[in-house]
């Protein structure tokens, strides 16, 4: 009941915004272009532009040229891109892409909680292959340089236990493939908990998660409602461990966004950003974006991660660096099945399809050494 009352109060504000949009003119193409240049110049924030798009919508066709201009002037911001695309869909088909009313938003969120927690309880034992591309950049630049590429076999048990076997590094098969609690022995950034932990934390009643409707969106052809959420540190208890000069850990809160299917009430996409990070901790920011898709295991269908983008920003001497792990989840199979290394796993390429080269840039930090047991930089 507490959840429903809280949602109604927040949704009342959203309803006011929607009502206001009917009295405002839609954004013209000329005005949108001026806004993009203002974002580039720093006189208008991306958040303000996104808010205007959601309040007023657009009155023009979103062409390939405007998409390119949006990417170049706004730093290829994914939230802005998704917002303007939804505004374009809403312009073309107002009925199909209208924002939810209060009743639908509360109903969909309640059903999503039921479906998610039920699915967590019915999760099977399975194995899956992770293909991980790791890169690093000066914080805030987005200019990532490839660090390495890993192939990891993950065994998941319904009890929540995860085991990791490091199979290849840059296409080279590893001799030590004994299962471990993480793949942190390779050093650098690693992550765990994509399968259940984040979803369960967001939706379990004990978290007292606060939700707010933000927008609608389309994910892989499915219409979704997008909600912001936040969980305080004492409820989320998310652990980030950093291995720099010494091993250190911090407990954080979390906030982010969930994309919920309007028809079957399942989470198709989830963003998680660490909050309340101690100011003296080496890691200054941590986030991940997880996409979920339907997979078949032993003849049964389950909604499980298909990809994850994990980012950590850390202090290293006088500089700050951002590490990025792009993870693909492939070949879900029943527990006990051997994960096979294929030609794709040993073909070493970057995100652009180019061969991986060692990042010998003297301005970037050297690859961190393998940490002692149970210490890594992860979320």
Annotation keywords:
2 domains; 379 residues; disordered C terminus; 14 strands; disordered N terminus; alpha+beta; two-stranded parallel ribbon; twelve-stranded antiparallel beta sheet; 27% helix
Structure in words:
It is a single chain. It contains nine helices and 14 strands. The chain folds into two domains: 2-92, no CATH class; 126-378, no CATH class. Helix content is 27%, strand content 36%. It is α+β, with helices and mostly antiparallel strands. Strands 1, 2, 3, 4, 6, 7, 8, 9, 10, 11, 12 and 13 form a twelve-stranded antiparallel beta sheet that branches. A two-stranded parallel sheet has the order 5-14.
Number of domains: 2
Major sheet summary line: 12 strands, antiparallel
**Rg, alpha carbons:** 22 Å
Q: DSSP strand (E) fraction?
A: 35-45%
Total count of strands: 14
What percent of residues adopt helix (DSSP H or I)? 25-40%
What general form does the structure show?
A: globular
Q: Please, what is the oligomeric state?
A: single chain
**Amino-to-carboxy terminus distance:** 32 Å
Order of helices and strands: HHHHHHEEEEEHEEHEEEEEEHE
Count of runs of 4 or more consecutive helical residues: 9
* pLDDT averaged residue by residue: 83
In short:
The protein has helices at 2-21, 29-41, 46-56, 64-73, 78-92, 102-121, 197-203, 233-236, 343-346; strands spanning 126-138, 145-156, 162-169, 172-173, 189-190, 210-219, 222-231, 238-243, 247-261, 267-275, 283-297, 300-316, 319-334, 377-378.
């Amino acid at each position: 009941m507490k959840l429903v009352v809280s949602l109604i109060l927040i949704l009342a504000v959203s309803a006011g915004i929607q009502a206001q949009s009917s009295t405002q003119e839609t954004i013209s193409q000329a005005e949108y272009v001026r806004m993009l240049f203002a974002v580039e110049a720093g006189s208008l924030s991306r958040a303000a532009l996104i808010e205007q798009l959601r309040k007023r919508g657009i009155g023009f066709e979103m062409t390939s040229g405007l998409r390119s201009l949006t990417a170049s002037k706004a730093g290829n911001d994914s939230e802005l891109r998704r917002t303007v695309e939804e505004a374009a869909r809403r312009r073309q088909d107002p009925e199909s892409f209208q924002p939810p009313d209060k009743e639908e938003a509360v109903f969909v969120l309640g059903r999503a909680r039921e479906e998610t927690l039920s699915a967590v309880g019915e999760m099977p034992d399975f194995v899956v292959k992770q293909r991980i591309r790791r890169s690093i950049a000066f914080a805030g630049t987005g200019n990532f340089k490839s660090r390495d590429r890993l192939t990891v076999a993950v065994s998941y048990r319904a009890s929540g236990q995860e085991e990791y076997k490091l199979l290849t590094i840059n296409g080279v098969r590893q001799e030590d493939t004994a299962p471990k609690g993480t793949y942190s022995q390779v050093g650098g950034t690693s992550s765990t908990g994509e399968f259940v932990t984040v979803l369960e934390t967001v939706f379990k009643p004990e978290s007292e998660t606060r939700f707010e409707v933000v927008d609608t969106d389309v994910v892989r052809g499915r219409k979704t409602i997008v909600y912001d959420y936040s969980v305080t540190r004492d409820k989320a208890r998310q652990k980030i461990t950093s291995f720099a000069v010494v091993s250190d850990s911090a407990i954080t809160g979390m906030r982010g966004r969930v994309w919920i299917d309007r028809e079957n009430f399942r989470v198709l996409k989830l963003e998680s950003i660490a909050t309340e990070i101690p100011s003296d901790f080496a890691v200054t920011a941590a986030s991940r974006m997880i996409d979920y898709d339907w997979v078949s295991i032993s003849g049964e269908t389950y909604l499980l991660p298909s990809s994850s983008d994990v980012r950590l920003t850390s202090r290293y001497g006088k500089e700050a660096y951002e590490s990025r792990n792009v993870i693909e989840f492939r070949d879900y199979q029943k527990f006990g099945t051997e994960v096979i290394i294929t030609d794709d796993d040993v073909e070493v390429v970057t995100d652009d399809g180019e061969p991986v080269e060692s990042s010998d840039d003297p301005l970037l930090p050297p690859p961190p050494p393998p940490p002692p047991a149970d210490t890594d930089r992860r979320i």
